[in-house]
Write a structure and sequence with these properties.
Keywords: FAD, Flavoprotein, Nucleotide-binding, Oxidoreductase, Proline metabolism. It contains twelve helices and eight strands. The protein is α/β, with parallel strands linked by helices and 307 residues long. α1 packs antiparallel against α11 and α7 packs parallel to α8.
Length: 307
């Protein structure tokens, strides 16, 4: 009961615009520094260097979402371009993740597509890859539509997206996206029973189903999970079906299960860490607290240890 209440509370708070705005002035608080790699590009690049030194690949994620002004969206676009340029200049191994609501998706579709093209052009120049993050269900179909437009109309092959296993539609989406690099996750937003599984067992079962589907189709697959049981199942499935390790990678979030990350590298698996940074950290951090009750204690320990 407590975990359900706390999950709903943190998911509700994550979308509170007033608290999100206030958090930009607070700096990294409440233990957020344990899971957010600073507020500037320089902070993020330094973190990537440290992870690369351990054999871990990265994806930088400039935090921010649900932007409602063209000025903010243009600033976010320019910042993402600068991030790609900084990755190239530093010579570190990191992709870029973007949220299209940060780039003006809720303002105007074509405006957002134009901003995405600018980012993907910069990624082409720097020989890099961009992952379009999947947001709440209301943005799911338009995200997939824009992904196809970017690839088929504008000719960008350096872009992929994320599929969330708790959505009923996930398996069909994975089949439709055969051949495209996908990041497969369980899902971190609060969705209604009409569109998403609510039971953890059902989510886990669907997660393994979409992982197997994408791997067996020969498509590049990023398995984003901190669950060692899921990871063990993927390793066994890959071995049993002669799926080469070059076709998939494991992914985790910055600040979580660091020993497991390093052990996977030692075993010879490709390991990538999502490294979020920026001053718009509040919504991201609240969703991390909502995902698992254990994360609340984790955050509180970080909060008091930093005081």
């Amino acid at each position: 009961m407590f975990s359900t209440i706390s999950k709903n509370f943190f998911l509700y708070v994550s979308q509170h615009k007033g608290l999100n705005k206030a958090a930009r002035k607070w700096g990294l608080k409440f233990g957020a520094a344990q899971v957010v790699a600073g507020v500037t590009i320089d902070h993020a690049i330094q973190t990537v260097k440290e992870l690369n030194d351990k054999g871990i690949l990265c994806t930088l994620d400039h935090l921010g979402e649900f932007v409602n002004s063209t000025e903010e969206a243009l600033q976010a676009t320019e910042y993402n371009v600068r991030t790609l340029e900084a990755i190239g200049k530093a010579g570190v191994n990191s992709h870029l993740s973007v949220k299209m609501t940060q780039l003006g998706l809720d303002i105007d579709r074509e405006f957002c597509v134009k901003n995405m093209c600018q980012i993907l052009d910069a990624a082409k120049r720097t020989n890099n890859f961009v992952r379009i993050d999947m947001e709440d269900y209301a943005h799911c179909q338009i995200t997939l539509d824009i992904l196809r437009e970017l690839r088929e109309v504008y000719g960008f092959d350096n872009v992929g997206t994320v599929i969330q296993a708790y959505l009923y539609r996930a398996h069909n989406d994975v089949k439709d996206l055969k051949g495209i690099s996908l990041r497969l996750v369980k899902g971190a937003y609060k969705e209604e029973p009409a569109v998403a599984y609510q039971d953890k067992k059902e989510i886990d079962e669907n997660y393994m189903k979409i992982i197997k589907e994408h791997l067996q189709s020969g498509s590049y697959t990023a398995i984003a999970s901190h669950d060692h049981r899921i990871i063990a199942k993927v390793k066994k499935f890959a071995e049993d079906n002669d799926i080469p390790r070059t076709q998939f990678e494991f992914q985790m979030l910055y600040g979580f299960r660091e020993e497991l990350q390093e052990s996977l590298v030692k075993e010879g698996y490709k390991m990538r860490v999502y490294v979020p940074f920026g001053d718009d950290w509040f919504g991201y951090f609240m969703r991390r607290l909502a995902e698992r009750p254990q994360n609340v204690g984790f955050a509180l320990r970080g909060f008091f240890s930093k005081k």
